[in-house]
């Protein structure tokens, strides 16, 4: 029987047409229709059978910022003097929520789409990219809510809110934050297919990381040169959150911190893509 099998010459051999470490962007573009369908599905799934619908995307950061403003701003006096605590915390909660949601949702995309991946072929990167794009829609809704509230403060005379030329850095911050979160997300997504415990560990770790970020306090409150400041600056989201406050509220910012975040984001993206591409061939068998 073994000799007979060796004599068989197959007419068609199914095998990868390129190395595992190379991302086929042309193939991703070919499946763009599927990408938009998955984005639409994710958006509809969030608001399906809800009374308030997209309004929840605005209420979540507003309520969180209101709680921070009362507890840490008014009671603990951690916000910057002269800036309404609501705006101070909302300017940090909006980017942090976006960052955390991309990582948490992207890390689970392969498990959530297991039934689809085990039946048909499509580039596996389509799933986390779709999740990232749908999360970005929520982010822009929340960012628009910040701008509306800041405008209300200005029109009411409660706070002379303005933005200067640093607003040109806003797209850079958004792209940098997206790359950072996406790289970490797909890295965890690839590993979660074999180690499901990482999903629980990631959720807990993201919650702890928020308290190591200048979300509830400005970085200026931490003395320069202290060990605690070094730990906080080691967090790549520190410069992004400080950058958002600088752009949206006019606070001073050390833009040199973004160099470290940029390097960290690029390394995370390359590591995530390498691991994702390496293990995606066995996704359907494992999940």
Notes on the structure:
It is a single chain. The chain is mainly alpha-helical. It has one domain (56-286). Helices cover 68% and strands 0% of the residues. The protein contains 14 helices and no strands. Helix 4 packs across helix 5 (85-106). The protein is globular and about 60 Å long. The two termini are 34 Å apart. The model has no long low-confidence stretch (mean pLDDT 84).
Number of helices: 14
What is the overall pLDDT average? 84
Strand tally: 0
Report how far apart the termini are: 34 Å
Q: Assign an overall shape.
A: globular
The number of domains: 1
Radius of gyration computed on alpha carbons: 22 Å
- What proportion of the residues form beta strands (DSSP E)? under 5%
User: SSE order in H/E notation?
Assistant: HHHHHHHHHHHHHH
Which residues form runs of ≥5 with pLDDT under 50?
none
Coarse structural class: mainly alpha
Measured as a percent range, the helix fraction is 55-70%
The major pleated sheet works out as: none
């Amino acid at each position: 029987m073994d000799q007979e099998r060796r004599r068989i010459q197959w007419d068609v051999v199914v095998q990868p047409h390129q190395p595992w470490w190379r991302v086929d962007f042309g193939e991703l573009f070919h499946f763009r229709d599927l990408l938009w369908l998955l984005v639409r599905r994710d958006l509809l799934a969030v608001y399906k059978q809800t009374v308030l619908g997209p309004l929840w995307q605005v209420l979540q950061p507003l309520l969180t910022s209101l709680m921070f403003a009362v507890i840490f701003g008014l009671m603990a006096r951690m916000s910057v003097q002269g800036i309404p605590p609501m705006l101070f915390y909302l300017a940090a909660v909006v980017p942090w929520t976006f960052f955390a949601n991309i990582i948490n949702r992207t890390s689970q995309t392969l498990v959530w789409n297991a039934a689809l991946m085990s039946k048909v072929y499509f580039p596996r990167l389509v799933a986390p990219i779709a999740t990232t794009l749908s999360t970005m829609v929520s982010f822009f809704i929340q960012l628009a809510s910040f701008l509306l509230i800041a405008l209300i403060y200005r029109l009411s005379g409660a706070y002379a809110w303005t933005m200067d030329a640093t607003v040109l850095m806003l797209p850079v911050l958004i792209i940098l934050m997206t790359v950072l979160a996406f790289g970490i997300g797909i890295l965890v997504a690839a590993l979660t297919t074999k180690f499901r415990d990482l999903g629980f560990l990631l959720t807990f770790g993201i919650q702890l990381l928020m308290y190591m970020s200048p979300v509830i306090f400005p970085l200026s409150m931490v003395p320069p040169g202290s060990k605690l400041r070094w730990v906080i600056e080691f967090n790549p989201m520190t410069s992004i959150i400080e950058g958002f406050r600088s752009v949206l509220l006019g606070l001073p910012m050390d833009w040199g911190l973004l160099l470290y975040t940029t390097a960290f984001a690029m390394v995370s993206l390359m590591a995530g893509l390498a691991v994702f591409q390496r293990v995606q061939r066995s996704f359907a068998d494992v999940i």
